[in-house]
Amino acid sequence: MTTTRRELLATALTAAGAGVTPPLAAAQQDHEHDHDHDHDHDHQAVPSDPALRAKALESVLVAKGLVDRAALDALVDTYEHQIGPRNGARVIARAWVDDAYRQRLLKNAKAAIAELGYGGVEGEQMVVVENTAQVHNLVVCTLCSCYPWPVLGLPPLWYKSAAYRSRSVIDPRGLLREFGLELAAEVEVRVWDSTAEVRYLVLPERPAGSEKLGEAELAALVTRDAMVGVARVVAPHERAQA
Ligand SMILES: [Co+2]
To answer: Which domains does the chain have, with CATH numbers?
Structure first.
């Protein structure tokens, strides 16, 4: 696991511990700072002052035996893979079982997502794009790493990588193939470039064979990667065969 993930978490812990700024708001300030500079670079290329402070704090805590780096990594991993994306998965499952909700979601994502109780920083304006048999949507932030936090949590490292940001535009089909997603030639690929203002969420296709599943069971099938558009949602019987 990388220093970057630990820095993110440590930044959040520092802010929370200090009781000054909510962690997400603090992180967002950093993010917006990056957007002020209108040039192309990775967020973490030059560590921010809070990031450096967080790193220093973490080093002291680890040196004193007060925290375990592995435990910190596990916590960040939880936010990256579980807590954040589970919100989005509930949104997707609701859209699959409730067509009126699905239409509200496609028309005004922020309001529809707020119906389920999700919203806040890095999700001030969200747009949901729907995958169909004819169209596959892929989300990127070519500038940096803009991402719909209220429904997906923290972006994974690959989302922030220069390779992903460039190849998603230059060769989306090739990129998707590397993620293990082979699209038929007749499927149109639409690439959505996120900005500080607009964040995109993919509404994946409901998998065949999932007709008898309830909303909670459907939500359990929806992965973060499917909601970014680098994977499809796979039904349980397909998983068993894989
Ligand atoms: Co960005």
So the answer is: 81-241 (3.90.330.10)
